[in-house]
Specification:
5% of the residues lie in helices and 47% in strands. It is mainly β. Strand 2 and strand 3 form a beta hairpin. The N and C termini lie close together (12 Å).
Amino acid sequence: MKPRLIVLPKIGKPDLGYLTILQEGGENLDFEIKRVYWTYFTPNHVERGNHAHKNLKQIIVAVSGIIDFKLIGQDEQTYEFTLDSPEKALFIPAGYWREIRFSHSAVLLCLASEVYEESDYIRDYKGFLDFSL
């Protein structure tokens, strides 16, 4: 499974505002959501992420602002994505190293397939390349 950009439905009008929907069991969310979290007010010069997950899958939305992702597979193939509107979502399967940069106004919303487990994280890049999924 590879990471992919998902364009979600944008329902509404400029004079009323918009609603975007992502629901379990739909074509874009094939896992049960066990954890939701968000990050905000990340300084522009800070790079976050710098880890991979052994089992966890994620759908990530930039609720506001701009978020740039560099994802690296164990074959060292690189994928780059920019989330710059709330109707775009990024699916990140297990087994991808991530490096993330934010605009200061960015709010990252993450829907995760698992509860937090430190043992699911790979925080060393060399260890990530050596890990067998």
